[in-house]
Amino acid sequence: GSTAGFHFIGLDDKTTSPLNRIQVGISPHLHADIPRRVAWLHATADGKEPNRFRPLSFAPPATWNDAGEIAYSPAEMAMPCFMPEDAARFGATWQCGGGTVCTQLATVSGVRTKLAQCLLPKDSESMFSGHPCLTGSIASNPAQPFNDRYTITGQFAAFAPSISRAAYTCRPPKIGVPAGIAYRGC
After folding, report:
1. Which of 5, 18, 80, 142 has its CA 20 to 30 A from that of 102?
2. For the segment 3-51, what is each residue's pLDDT rounded down to a tens digit?
3. Span 22-35, pLDDT tens digits
4. What percent of the chain has pLDDT over 70?
């Protein structure tokens, strides 16, 4: 249920207004974290030291075994991933699956890790509207975080010069899509 915009874990009951109903009873983060919590509980119940590692909130679901080893599921389309040079700093990580590749979307001043997502290769026949298409850099302003600035540094998909029904064009960030967005007329 929920109260005044605060949603509690679990499904809404019958008394919750349909105007204030959440569609999913648990978040994707909690769903992915449940196997870790179960492994923790089993280790504790068996008198063993539980694995205290906690994955990043954007990690895909993983299998946690009794030896404390973690086997991540492959990341799906548009899920975050680590570029190879960053992955080494995070221990066991995951790979992109489903015909996607880890594609850097942005760099941020003062942050060593690159922001990347599992996306289609640039010449993929499976391109779709909504797919990111631009790379950029974010200049952070610690004194006024709302004044961070985004600069486009490249384009990696949706190369059509104009909107058409046959090819994808890359819509710019100024319309509210930070990494650009592939679009094709219906």
Report:
1. 142
2. 444 555 556 667 766 655 555 556 667 777 788 888 889 889 999 988 8
3. 555 566 677 777 88
4. 83
What residues make up the domain containing 39?
1-73
Q: Are residues 17 and 108 in the same domain?
A: no
How many domains does one find in the chain? 2
Measured CA to CA, the distance from residue 93 to residue 84 in angstroms comes to: 10
Q: What is the pTM of this model?
A: 0.71
- 28 lies in the same domain as 80: no
Based on the domain organization, do 36 and 108 belong to the same domain?
no
- For residue 51, give every residue at least 6 positions away whose Cβ sits within 8 Å of its Cβ, in sequence order, or none: 36, 39, 40, 43, 64, 68, 70
